[in-house]
Prior knowledge:
Number of helices: 3
Shape: elongated
Helix content: 55-70%
Structural class: mainly alpha
Number of strands: 2
Number of domains: 2
Oligomer: single chain
Order of helices and strands: HEEHH
Strand order of the largest sheet: 1-2
Largest sheet: 2 strands, antiparallel
Bound molecules: zinc ion
Mean pLDDT: 88
Distance between the termini: 50 Å
Radius of gyration: 20 Å
Strand content: 5-15%
Low-confidence stretches: none
Amino acid sequence: MTGHPDLIDRAAERTDELLAEALYQQRKRAAEPEQIVENGHVYCCDCGDQIARERLEAKPNAARCGDCQQLHENEQRRLRGGK
Ligand SMILES: [Zn+2]
């Protein structure tokens, strides 16, 4: 036998780790983040601004203000390779 089986095993392990991490990060980004609620007000998890009441009426579980949600969606589209 030639080659370095240990090294190859380690490389494969490392690849699995990276893949798992990438999938985890992807799921985390795709999921709606937890709302930040203080004194009955909901605050944007990205910029910390209070989320408008109209927005919460339209989307009760919104965790971002309209601006940040738009940025987030643009980013998601870019990551998926869309334009
Ligand atoms: Zn925001």
